[in-house]
Write a structure and sequence with these properties.
9 strands; Alpha/beta knot; alpha/beta; 2 domains; five-stranded parallel β-sheet
Length: about 260
């Protein structure tokens, strides 16, 4: 007999488009979830519906739910923003719109479940945060637009602002997808080889060593002989030295942190 399938798995026809992987999906209490509050729910799953994250989504290893901000809009035109108090350019997302959207998303939350706001003024996202999110029951991500979100929402819900880096994007959807991708790949069973997540860049504070494969000679360039030697102790030593060299050259900030 075949072993019973996990209740977290669902059968999905291969003809379905990625977006439809998210439709009519019941919520499972023991499956890691990402809940995304956005004005553009059709942008999801996007790249998350492809490759390993897409396969894991289809298998029920994790779940993705979107919450449409427009559904909480005010008035006949379902307005979600208004002019900044005190004047200024652009528009600000209203507290009485974003607040109810967060309440709807958090109604399904359980256990440790942070709320993140994609913001250029936030803490920079890194591998350590991805590992921490992977250990949570789930995460809610608020995708900003325009000039941002009414500050009272951030304060009231104790939202953590997170940034991909020192640049500004038109909205938080791409940043949210990047953060979800970095987190989901750390969930048990998503990567084909669990050691891949241990040896890659930033897993130990260093950049990853160079990688090689067939053919052994390409454009007159050889694979380093030590990698062909079969001496695993020497290979490990070479990889460590190369990781340190690349980190010193390319990311002196990470190298200095290693030395503290």
């Amino acid at each position: 007999m075949k072993p019973p399938r996990s209740h977290g798995r669902q059968s999905v026809r291969p003809t379905l488009k990625p977006r439809e992987l998210m439709q009519d999906t019941p919520t499972y209490a023991d499956v890691w979830q990402a809940r995304v509050i956005t004005l553009f729910p059709d942008l999801f799953p996007g790249v998350l519906g492809a490759s390993l994250t897409g396969k894991a989504l289809q298998a029920g290893t994790w779940q993705l739910h979107t919450h449409d901000l427009r559904a909480h809009g005010i008035g006949k035109h379902l307005n979600v923003d208004d002019t900044p108090a005190g004047g200024g350019a652009g528009m600000v997302m209203r507290a009485d719109v974003v607040g109810p959207a967060i309440e709807a998303a958090q109604a399904h939350a359980h256990g440790r479940w942070p709320i993140l706001y994609m913001s250029p003024r936030g803490r920079r996202f890194d591998q350590g945060m991805a590992r921490d999110l992977a250990s949570c029951a789930g995460v809610t991500l608020l995708c900003g637009r325009f000039e941002g979100v009414d500050e009272r929402v951030i304060e009231h819900y104790a939202i953590t602002e997170v940034s991909l880096g020192d640049f500004v994007m038109t909205g938080g959807e791409l940043a949210a997808q990047a953060m979800i991708d970095a987190t989901v790949r750390l969930l048990p069973g998503v990567l084909g080889n669990a050691e891949s997540a241990v040896e890659e860049s930033h897993s130990n504070g260093l950049l990853e060593h160079p990688q090689y494969t067939r053919p052994p000679i390409w454009q007159d360039r050889d694979i380093p002989p030590v990698l062909m030697s079969g001496n695993h102790q020497e290979i490990a030593k070479w990889r460590q030295m190369e990781s340190e060299r690349l980190t010193r050259e390319r990311r002196p900030d990470l190298w200095q942190a290693q030395k503290k």
